[in-house]
Design a protein that fits this description.
single chain; alpha/beta; TIM Barrel; Alpha-Beta Plaits; 2 domains; two-stranded antiparallel sheet; 11 strands; 32% helix; globular; binds iron/sulfur cluster
Length: 281
C-alpha cells in the first residue's frame, strides 16, 4: 500500500519558509504542545469525536463507513468554526496524501520555486513519507528543507540528510525546566540535534522566540545557541506574537508582541558572542 501522510495544508508559494520561493507542506501532528503555538489545530490527529461535524454550517464534515471524520473541500466555506470548536487541538481539514499526490501539487509550482519546505505540526513524525518525497523532489532538481522542533534523532537515522539541504531548527529554550514549561517536552534531543546537524553541515538556521520581560530565559537560550553555532548558520531571533495563541496561554506568556528593540538586544548579544548571522524578525 502507498505511503500516506496527513497533510494539513500546502502553500504553493512561500517566501518565509527558507530561501527563495518555496512550496511549503504542513503535516498534521506534533509531539510538542507549545504554549505559544500559532497553529494549535495542527498538534493532534483527529479523534473522530464528531463535535465539529455538528457545528459545521456548510455540511462539509461527515463520517465514512468506519466512523472516521471526512472533510469535503468543495463544500467547505473556510469559516474555521471546526477549528474553533475542536477540543483536541486538531482539525478535520486534512488530506491523507501519497507522495505522488503531493508531487502533483509541487509540479504545478515547480517552474517558479527554489525548492520545498516540510513543516507542521512536526514533519519528522512522518519521516518515511518525507524521505520518499525528498527523493522525488531531488529528481526534479529542487531543494528540500526541513522545519523541525528537533525531537527526531537525526544521528540515529540520518538517511534523509542525503536528500535534505538543511534543517531549520527551533531551539525554544536552553533551560530544561523552561523548555518543559514552554513545550511539554525535554530539551535534550533538541540540543543533541543542534550539535549533530551543525557538525553534519546540515543546519540551515536556528530559531529562538524572544518573550516579553523574560530577561533571564531569553538570555540563557541566546547565549547557549550562539556559543555553539558561531557564524556557521543563520540565527533567527523571533519576536513573540500573541496572534493565534490559545487564550489561556496568552495570560502566561503575554498578550502583546515583543518589542523590536528588546528583541534586537538579543540579536546583538548573539552577534557579540560570534553568531554573526543573527537577525530579528
Ligand atoms: S471551515 Fe470547517 S466548519 Fe467551516 S465550512 Fe469548512 S469544514 Fe465546515
Ligand atoms: S477535528 Fe476535533 S472536533 Fe472534529 S472530529 Fe476531530 S477531534 Fe473531534
Amino acid at each position: 500500500m502507498a505511503n500516506k501522510a496527513p497533510i494539513n495544508k500546502i502553500i504553493s508559494f512561500s517566501n518565509v519558509d527558507g530561501p527563495g520561493n518555496r512550496t511549503s507542506i504542513f503535516f498534521q501532528g506534533c509531539g510538542f504542545n507549545c504554549l505559544f503555538c500559532h497553529n494549535p489545530e495542527t498538534i493532534n490527529l483527529c479523534l473522530n469525536c464528531g463535535i465539529c461535524m455538528e457545528k459545521c454550517p456548510a455540511g462539509a464534515i461527515s463520517r465514512d463507513e468506519e466512523g472516521r471524520i471526512v472533510w469535503d473541500k468543495d463544500q467547505c466555506v473556510s469559516c474555521d468554526t471546526c477549528i474553533q470548536v475542536c477540543p483536541h487541538s486538531s482539525s478535520p481539514k486534512i488530506r491523507w496524501m501519497t507522495t505522488d499526490d503531493v508531487m502533483q501539487e509541487i509540479h504545478r509550482s515547480a517552474p517558479y520555486i527554489t525548492g520545498i519546505t516540510c513543516s507542521g505540526g512536526e514533519c519528522t513524525i512522518w519521516y518515511e513519507f518525507m524521505l520518499e518525497l525528498f527523493k522525488k523532489v531531488k529528481e526534479i532538481n529542487k531543494g528540500c528543507l526541513i522545519d523541525s522542533n528537533g525531537s527526531f534523532d537525526f544521528e540515529q537515522d540520518p538517511r534523509i540528510l542525503e536528500y535534505c539541504d538543511g534543517v531549520m531548527l527551533d531551539v525554544k529554550a536552553a533551560n530544561p525546566e523552561w523548555h518543559r514549561t514552554l513545550t511539554g517536552a525535554d530539551r535534550d534531543m533538541v540540543m543533541k540535534n543542534l550539535r549533530y546537524l551543525l557538525a553534519a553541515n546540515k543546519l540551515y538556521e536556528v530559531r529562538t522566540l524572544i518573550f516579553p520581560d523574560r530577561d533571564r530565559e531569553n538570555e540563557e537560550t541566546v547565549k547557549y545557541v550562539s556559543e555553539i553555532i558561531q557564524d556557521r548558520c543563520f540565527y533567527k531571533i523571533i519576536r513573540y506574537r500573541p496572534f493565534g495563541v490559545r487564550e489561556e496561554n496568552k495570560k502566561l506568556l503575554g498578550e502583546w508582541t515583543t518589542d523590536e528593540k528588546y528583541a534586537e538586544q538579543y540579536a546583538q548579544l548573539a552577534r557579540d558572542l560570534g553568531a554573526s548571522k543573527a537577525y530579528v524578525v
